[in-house]
Amino acid sequence: MPQRLAEQVSDFASDRPASDDLLLRQTQKALIAPRVRNAIFALMIFGLISLSVAIKDSLTARALVSVLFLGFLCAALKMLSEGKVRKAVILAVGVLLAALASALWDGHGLRDSVALALTLPIILTGMAANRRAILLTTGITLAIVLVVGVAELAGWKPHRPIGVTGSAMIMYVTILSTLGIVMAIISREFRQMIEVMTRQIRQLRAMNQQDALTGLFNRSAIEEQLPAQLDVARSSGSQVALLHLNIDNFKAVNDSLGHELGDAYLRHVGKLIKPLTGAGVHAARLSGDEFVIIAESIQGSEDIAALANRLRDALAKPWTVSEVQVVTTCSMGVALFPGDGSDFPALMKNADIAMRHAKQAGGNTFKLFREEMNSEMLAHLHVISGLRAALVGREFYLQYQPQIEIATGRMVGAEALIRWRHPRLGLIPPGQFIPAAERSGLIIEIGEWVLQEACRQLRVWEDAGMRGVVLAVNLSPVQFRRDNIEQLVINTLELHGIDPRHIELEITESMLMGEKENFAQMLRRMGDLGLKFAIDDFGTGYSNLAYLRQFAVDRLKIDRSFVHNVARDDHNHALVKAITEIGKSLSLEIVAEGVEDAETLDALLALGCHIGQGWHWAKAMSPDELFAYWQANS
């Protein structure tokens, strides 16, 4: 029954009423109609018994009143079935008042057993939940009592006393039974309403606390829960950790796969995080690709590291969609109660600062908040504000790292790497200012400057006699989303008289996932000119052979995280081996970044890797130093 009542309310609510008042009236109908129907049925039983008693006692007038009473109740039921709840209640209450008044007037006055039924109209009106109607019915009932009573006292309508008769007993029992039935109906209906309302309140509360996309808690829920957790920690002397998690490069996933698949990936992340919750660990999605995890009863940094590593390992699992394998990492920042804050805003602010430091460190890691990070964050803001001034003030410059043919040790190429020497902050790593430049849009101007400067320097080297060297230049995904990138490259090459075969443009895997057909056509056109293309950091994002076949690329650059420890780490060894085999099958050259020792070099040579780049040979250097290095290793 409560379920049916809930369905009725839901049905009315789904009709999209024009106003809140209309919704209220419709909801009242859904709740009131069943109660009124049951009460009318009880009154009909009362009317039938009254009719039988009147016939038995040969009370013609009362029998006629009972028949009319039953007829009008049938009419009220019909109105009820047509949805005319208010009219049905008015008719039922009106005919009941008239029948009672008639019975008292023609019967034994206020001594009549029918007087017990005077409460029925008020109860029936009460079911309609209308205060004015209740007051009106109560007033009419009191008026009937006063009229009948005064008429007898004044002698206008004397009523003779009656003794106890069988008919009177039947009427007493009938009236009391009817009252009991009506009150039982009211009690049951109100209990059912309370159950329905309680269930709906629970559901609404759950909905208000749940993130619709992932099923995790939402921000308001975690904020609401945290004070109680902090109170427990305060009294027990323990710590509470707030971990702010952000998915690395999620914007690339969203832009490349589309928002629908981006949302699907966030749902996937929610499913990965959920099993790690419970037993003092609570997770919530704040917004976008940001999550927060609250961990109670933290004893030390080991507990935090264990939780962060579990989260990182969970999110590192590949996710396959539309024949594309997505592998993402996450950056995490941790703030501890009570040392780093005493409430949610303070802890969240400091955890966010720590998370940004994890991002700047290259991502796929976590950082504990330190007080010094505040000053470092201010420095980061200075970085953003100083980007435009850096372009104007010629604070950017390029260094070049040699690329070596592993089998011969001969220098066959170099990568142009941007550097920024800030007049006040000193040397700022690219990992700090490139993301800021992409967010601000200044990466367009910075990227154009890098291409111009690299081509200008290559012209200088070639004029000095350098031959057989391919210069690799990084381009941002933001630049490739501009319509003029193809013409920009062609114009720059022509301006400096550079053979396109001597330039290699480095792109990322995520860029292959955007406007695939248009992008593929553009790469083919530029490739026809002689330009080379390399996929940078291969294996860290998307891995799909179909895309490698579709796009005209020449090289795969293995990310330094895979090359590191390749001689001793079976996992990294297997990854590098797989990538080199992919390269062989597609006739692509393989470039290994981050080669730092002879042991790594030997392992790469055994795996069939063609070209290496790293500190084992040389760090990034100035143009003059690179020219000298080429002379010694050409």
Walkthrough of the structure:
It is a single chain. This protein is an alpha/beta fold. It has 3 domains: about 1-205, no CATH class; about 220-370, Reverse transcriptase/Diguanylate cyclase domain (Alpha-Beta Plaits, 2-Layer Sandwich); about 400-634, TIM Barrel (Alpha-Beta Barrel). Helices cover about 60% and strands about 15% of the residues. The protein has helices spanning about 1-15, 20-55, 60-80, 85-105, 120-125, 130-155, 165-210, 220-235, 250-255, 260-275, 300-315, 345-360, 370-390, 430-440, 445-465, 475-480, 485-495, 515-530, 545-550, 560-565, 570-585, 600-605, 625-634, and strands spanning about 240-245, 280-285, 290-300, 320, 325, 330-335, 365-370, 395-405, 410-420, 425-430, 470-475, 505-510, 530-540, 555-560, 590-595, 610-615. The strands form 3 sheets. Strands 8-9-11-12-13-14-15-16 form an 8-stranded mixed barrel, surrounded by 5 helices. A 5-stranded mixed sheet has the order 2-3-1-6-7, with helices on both faces. Strand 12 (about 505-510), helix 18 and strand 13 (about 530-540) form a beta-alpha-beta unit. Helix 1 (about 1-15) packs across helix 7 (about 165-210) and helix 2 (about 20-55) packs parallel to helix 4. Residues about 1-20 have low confidence and may be disordered.
